[in-house]
Design goal:
This protein is of the alpha/beta class. It is built from eight helices and seven strands. The chain is about 40% helix and about 10% strand. It is globular, with a radius of gyration of 16 Å.
């Protein structure tokens, strides 16, 4: 088994844990955990805010209108959903699509960092204001930082972070569609650069995760493309 295949198998194991997570109150209101989907060995990973109603129903990220626009933007730079990995800061839908709460973000954070560690992306593109502020730790608004690459340490991995407007913004304001195309073109160029130096591994112990049980949603295990 190759190193990439081993990481994919580990990602599937993390998915099985996450599918049974009860660390925060969202476990009581969700339909399905939206773990993320795409290529488990992707150079590019997208991180949005939280699942919406359709994502909660299907257990997959970005499957509504915003997801359709994301697919179009990926096609413009010669990529598709099977060549990237798409996730969110939260894996469960907040009721009424309200903003994520601190306990929810802290509960999902270990899973998000584990996804980053196992997928080993060169670039993480944050989609929208909320995800960008959370991942970068900077409260500067998305309109000021969009399209500007940064370098950040996320858990055990150093990555280039490339903030982009959320596709929903272009659906609300069509004139932003051209802006997003420009940023995706810049994102494509960034993918051609070497990955950042990883440096020494962190000394902190791995974060605690919820205990898994024997149940799993096997129908979703094909969401991680080989």
């Amino acid at each position: 088994m190759s190193e990439a295949e081993q990481r994919r198998e580990s990602l599937v194991a993390v998915y099985r844990e996450a599918a049974e997570c009860t660390l925060c109150p969202l476990a009581q209101t969700r339909t399905k955990v939206v773990f993320g989907a795409g290529n488990a060995d992707a150079d590019l990973m997208f991180i949005g805010e939280a699942p919406g109603a359709e994502e909660d129903r299907r257990g997959l990220p970005f499957v509504g209108r915003a997801g359709g626009l994301l697919n179009e933007l990926l096609a413009e730079i010669g990529l598709d959903r099977d060549s990237v990995f798409i996730a969110n800061t939260l894996m469960c839908r907040p009721p009424g699509n309200r903003d994520p709460q601190p306990v929810e973000l802290e509960s999902c954070r270990p899973y998000l960092l584990e996804k980053v560690r196992l997928i080993e992306p060169k670039v993480i593109s944050t989609l929208g204001n909320f995800a960008t502020k959370l991942i970068t730790g900077d409260q500067t608004g998305i309109t000021k930082v969009r399209g500007r690459p940064q370098v950040h340490r996320l858990g055990e991995r150093t990555v280039r972070v490339f903030p982009i407007l959320h596709p929903a913004a272009a659906l609300r304001t069509p004139k932003l569609r051209e802006t997003m195309s420009e940023d995706f073109a810049a994102l494509s160029r960034l993918l051609g650069e070497p990955a950042p130096d990883q440096g020494p591994p962190p000394e902190d112990p791995p974060p605690r995760r919820s205990e898994p049980d024997s149940r799993s949603d096997r129908d979703q295990l094909d969401i991680f493309a080989p």
